[in-house]
């Protein structure tokens, strides 16, 4: 969450639970120039007090920024009179991985080396150079190892580094990793492709619509998506080679045309991607799986294919089908093989982050 000196806020931390108190904390940081960590939690004594009504606690690092401060990749460039409370989720628009913002967390004792640094690569030398102003020399090697590992994984959180002496408190660093958005490749310029592009736009994915038919692949029909007029299997091969498709990528084949589906899925199931799904009836799915086996796809790879695509929500219209597809993508990403109504069980609402 970014707070300007005039009180304007951009972004959110909890969706409203503690934003008012964080605003006050940011304004105090702007006045004093000092960083601070604020803890907010549910108050049993006064349910209307500042706190998390849903339970739990949240630690918020408030870091004043000025024109000399390093800006996080893809974040608004800070200007004098702004304070930043970093959000927990990685930015969706970072230019290229790996990248991160690292902030020195103030402790109970005055921090001699406060500040913010940016890291554009996870190479040890670059990480060490960025951390040098933030941590004591004796703790630099340990901090470099931990921060570089966190940036490589794309994680956001705290790194605690032992101090140089037994009497000094450990150094804490807040590491906010920035990664580009996951790439959602939609094969099929039809009503279902249009609906999926529209439904996926708010999720922050990089969207590509691929179809070899120029008459159907009209960019005006798919706002927010890059439209590629090419055979999807050829596009995927080039994208995989260039790194535009990676382990977080999502491939949805909505063409229901064997001459497109089979070569596209044959390649997609060989790639290290997060999700591969294909649209079609039960009969089409059986025929397609048989064709994929004939094309040399083994059973282990076929087990990764989500077909018929989407969750069984009773979806009928293209817009409803798009919701069912994205719901399945999220369930797969969160490793939830069985999805039920939240009201029907007492499982945690959110998957723990590794």
What order do the helices and strands come in, and which of them pair?
Elements: E1 2-4, E2 9-10, H1 19-32, E3 36-41, E4 57-65, E5 82-84, E6 99-105, E7 116-119, H2 124-131, H3 140-153, E8 157-161, E9 171-178, E10 183-187, H4 191-200, E11 206-210, E12 226-228, H5 232-242, E13 250-253, H6 258-268, E14 275-278, H7 282-294, H8 299-302, E15 305-306, H9 318-333
Helix pairs in contact: 2-3, 4-9, 5-6
Folded structure, characterized:
- This protein is an alpha/beta fold.
- The protein folds into 3 domains: 1-87, no CATH class; 89-180, no CATH class; 183-333, Rossmann fold.
- Helices cover 29% and strands 20% of the residues.
- The chain has 9 helices and 15 strands.
- β10, α4 (191-200) and β11 form a beta-alpha-beta unit.
- The radius of gyration is 24 Å and the shape is elongated.
- Residues 69-84 and 86-95 have low confidence and may be disordered.
